[in-house]
């Protein structure tokens, strides 16, 4: 594999060519001064890129104008009629932008990283726009963002300022892949033909949301898991967002996306600059599986703060105790958890202030004296004596009206004077866009972590924005949405800088805040509040299209499941959770000795293979859509070992039983099954398959671990 990234410029053609290890991206500035797309796909030489740039254009009808597909950042102005990536309203009320090139250059911000900056200004007004393209020598992901600066003496308003627009080559058809859902049913994968016109995916909730996630994949409709080309893009932003996929009448397709939702603007005072979040793109060959593996590698290597670490097995107290929390009960649970081989004990909600239900206490972040008379210190000491690290649930962005904090600062929440304050889950949202609220939040978190030596925070955020007003801020409503997220990021960044050993899980009522922006400053995410093993197979399938197992929290909880009331065997529940970051969340006091012994064995089995799950290459051998058995494989980069997890929820009598063909092995090597001792040839496993030997009946599952023996 070629590992050198090259950004070159050809003055004869005006083409900037970005070459990653496996792909190329080409852009040029046309005769009008506008940045135009040339190519995004397999690697090209400069001469090949030049041929594409000089290919004769298809004549367009004078009735059509331009759709924006083929432009690097379609603007509002001229005869453009597609979705604009950049919309500006100037102080004189006009809306338009005309490109005037300024300096373009290549920048090396750090070893192994290359950045192309294309700088422009508007021909009429002093508004400067820079298009950024950042690549790394070991990744095919191209990270794009935009900066817009008001160099004038009058304010302007950005009605839309997307991070990037991505253009696809002309294909015979287009198919869109994305996920949708709701609370407790997140990340459900959809693949469907891309309609003509505009398809908008968005969140207006203040967070990434349970209902959609800011990534998309496009293919020609014929791509499979293992074959075909895929163009994909993912937005690194944890607030409101919008991605628009466009299919034009002349047979082209493209994407534009960025922060913010319809109806909000970005005010720019004189001298102010807007920096968009990254909208990263990836072209890949080898089907959806290859796209997934490329994203996983990139996220582990270049997004996660500690992507090379192996995450511990954790226990979380929530489903065991709810709000009924006290020192003695937690110590008893911790002792049971330690018997299972748990490495991180997490005390969930109910430990602070007057918190006895979800109706009170949020905002009062000191241990309840009647429940923890000596503070959290004795529990932390006991957990560490048992050989585990200590974690704590917090919800820093929220407040109950029934709390000391709200009574002292009712103006600190999102609200509009004179209007109702809508409560969801009996709580309101603190306005983190305010500097004083953000500083207060950082201070108590820093104090909590310092005083108790907290190793891990489960950072929750359990409701969407409403009444998103900011009465004390100039243009507060419009400034709030982005500044809230920037202050959230700043709090986490400062906290981690001061406490480098601290690890953080992002949670938002489950999977409501999962994106590349939050993953750049946390270590994992809580995938869904739905822990039902059957439902989790589909949720985890959609989640894993972009996000790696190293980030995917997966719990084993009690049956009947609290949400679905479904009974699933302990073995099946463990095997589903082993596909991510294994954790346990059941009431261990109610577990029999047989269940405790079995669970300890499953935890030990996971520890033996978790390096493959968390750092290996994922191969989806059969998916949950219309398949009787779902099988996933994790392979080591050196092909020295691999493991499979297989789940069959229901068994139809007479259904064919087929061997499963593995991938990512050395065909010339032999592999031993660590459980049975059987030895298999790599070529046979890849070309003819492995019989899984699932037992008959419903809820059948297995884990197979194979190591190379020569």
Quick structural overview:
The chain contains 13 helices and 37 strands. With 710 residues, the chain is α+β, with helices and mostly antiparallel strands.
Task: Report on the architecture of this protein.
- It comes from Streptomyces clavifer.
- Keywords: Glycosidase, Hydrolase.
- Pfam families: Glyco_hydro_36C, Glyco_hydro_36N, Melibiase.
- InterPro entries: Aldolase_TIM, Alpga-gal_N_sf, Alpha-glycosidase_related, GH, Glyco_hydro_27/36_CS, Glyco_hydro_36, Glyco_hydro_36_C, Glyco_hydro_36_N.
- This protein is an alpha+beta fold and 710 residues long.
- It is 21% helix and 29% strand.
- The protein contains 13 helices and 37 strands.
- Strands 6, 7, 8, 9, 12, 13, 15, 16, 20 and 21 form a 10-stranded antiparallel beta sheet that branches. Strands 22-23-24-27-28-29-30-31 form an 8-stranded parallel beta barrel, surrounded by 5 helices.
CATH homologous superfamily grouping of the largest domain: Aldolase class I
Number of discrete helical segments: 13
The coarse silhouette is globular
CATH top level of the largest domain? Answer: Alpha Beta
**Under the CATH scheme, which architecture of the largest domain would be assigned?**
Alpha-Beta Barrel
Radius of gyration: 26 Å
CATH topology of the largest domain: TIM Barrel
Helix vs. strand class:
alpha+beta
Number of domains: 3
Sequence stretches where pLDDT stays below 50 over 5 or more residues: none
Overall average pLDDT: 95
Report helical residue fraction. 10-25%
Query: What kind of sheet is the major sheet?
Result: 10 strands, antiparallel
- Beta percentage is 25-35%
Enzyme class: hydrolase
Keywords: Glycosidase, Hydrolase
GO molecular function, one term: alpha-galactosidase activity
Protein name: Alpha-galactosidase
């Amino acid at each position: 594999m070629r590992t050198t990234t090259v950004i070159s410029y050809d003055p004869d053609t005006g083409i900037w060519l970005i070459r990653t290890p496996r792909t190329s991206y080409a852009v040029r500035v046309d005769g009008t001064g506008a940045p135009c797309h040339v190519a995004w796909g397999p690697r090209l030489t400069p001469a090949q890129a030049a041929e594409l740039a000089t290919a004769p254009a298809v004549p367009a009808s004078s009735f059509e104008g331009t759709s924006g597909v083929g432009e690097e950042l379609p603007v509002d102005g001229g005869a453009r009629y597609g979705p604009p990536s950049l919309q500006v309203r100037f102080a004189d009320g006009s809306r338009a932008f005309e490109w005037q090139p300024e300096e373009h250059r290549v920048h090396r911000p750090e070893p192994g990283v290359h950045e192309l900056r294309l700088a422009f200004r508007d021909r009429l007004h002093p508004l400067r726009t820079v298009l950024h393209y950042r690549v790394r020598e070991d990744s095919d992901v191209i990270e794009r963002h935009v900066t817009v600066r008001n160099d004038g003496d009058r304010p302007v308003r950005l009605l839309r300022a997307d991070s990037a627009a991505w253009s696809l080559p002309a294909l015979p058809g287009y198919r869109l892949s994305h996920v949708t859902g709701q609370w407790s049913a997140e990340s459900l994968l959809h693949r469907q033909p891309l309609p003509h016109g505009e398809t908008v995916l968005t969140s207006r909730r203040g967070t990434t949301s349970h209902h959609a996630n800011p990534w998309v994949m496009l293919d020609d409709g014929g791509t499979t898991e293992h074959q075909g080309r895929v163009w994909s893009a993912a937005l690194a932003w944890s607030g409101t967002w919008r991605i628009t996929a466009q299919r034009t009448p002349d047979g082209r397709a493209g994407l534009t996306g960025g922060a913010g939702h319809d109806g909000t603007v970005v005010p720019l005072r004189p001298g102010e600059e807007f920096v968009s979040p990254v909208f990263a793109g990836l072209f890949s060959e080898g089907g959806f599986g290859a796209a997934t593996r490329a994203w996983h590698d990139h996220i582990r290597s270049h997004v996660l703060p500690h992507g090379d670490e192996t995450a511990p097995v954790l226990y979380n107290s929530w489903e065991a105790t709810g709000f009924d929390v006290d020192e003695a009960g937690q110590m008893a649970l911790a002792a049971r958890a330690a018997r299972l081989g748990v490495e991180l004990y997490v005390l969930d909600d109910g430990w602070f202030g007057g918190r006895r239900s979800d109706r009170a206490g949020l905002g009062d972040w000191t241990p309840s004296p009647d429940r923890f008379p000596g503070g959290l210190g004795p529990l932390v000491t006991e957990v560490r004596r048992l050989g585990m690290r200590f974690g704590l649930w917090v919800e820093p962005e929220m407040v109950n009206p029934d709390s000391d904090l709200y009574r002292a600062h009712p103006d600190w929440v999102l609200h509009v004077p004179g209007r109702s304050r809508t409560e969801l889950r009996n709580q309101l949202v603190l306005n983190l866009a305010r500097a004083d609220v953000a500083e207060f939040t950082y201070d108590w978190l820093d104090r909590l972590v310092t005083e108790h030596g907290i190793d891990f925070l489960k950072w929750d955020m359990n409701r969407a924005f409403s009444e998103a007003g900011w009465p004390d801020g100039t243009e507060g409503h419009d400034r709030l949405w982005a500044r809230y997220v920037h202050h959230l990021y700043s709090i986490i960044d400062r906290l981690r800088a001061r406490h480098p050993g601290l690890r953080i899980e992002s949670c938002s009522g489950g999977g409501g805040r999962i994106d590349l922006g939050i993953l750049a400053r946390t270590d994992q995410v809580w995938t869904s509040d739905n822990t039902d093993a059957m439902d989790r197979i589909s949720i985890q399938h959609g989640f894993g299209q972009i996000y790696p197992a190293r980030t995917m929290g997966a719990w084993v909880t009690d049956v009947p499941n609290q949400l679905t009331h479904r009974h699933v065997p302990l073995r099946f529940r463990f095997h589903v959770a082993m596909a991510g970051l294994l954790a346990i969340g059941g009431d261990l006091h109610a577990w029999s000795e047989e269940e405790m012994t079995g669970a300890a064995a499953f935890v030990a089995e996971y520890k033996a293979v978790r390096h493959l799950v968390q750092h290996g290459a994922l191969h989806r051998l059969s998916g949950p859509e219309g398949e009787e058995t779902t099988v996933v494989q994790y392979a080591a980069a050196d092909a020295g070992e691999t493991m499979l997890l297989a789940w069959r929820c229901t068994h139809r009598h007479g259904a064919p039983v087929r061997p499963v063909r593995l991938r990512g092995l050395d065909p010339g090597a032999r592999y031993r099954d660590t459980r049975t001792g059987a030895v298999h040839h790599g070529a046979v496993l890849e070309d003819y398959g492995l019989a899984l030997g699932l037992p008959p009946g419903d809820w059948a599952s297995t884990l197979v671990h194979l190591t190379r023996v020569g």
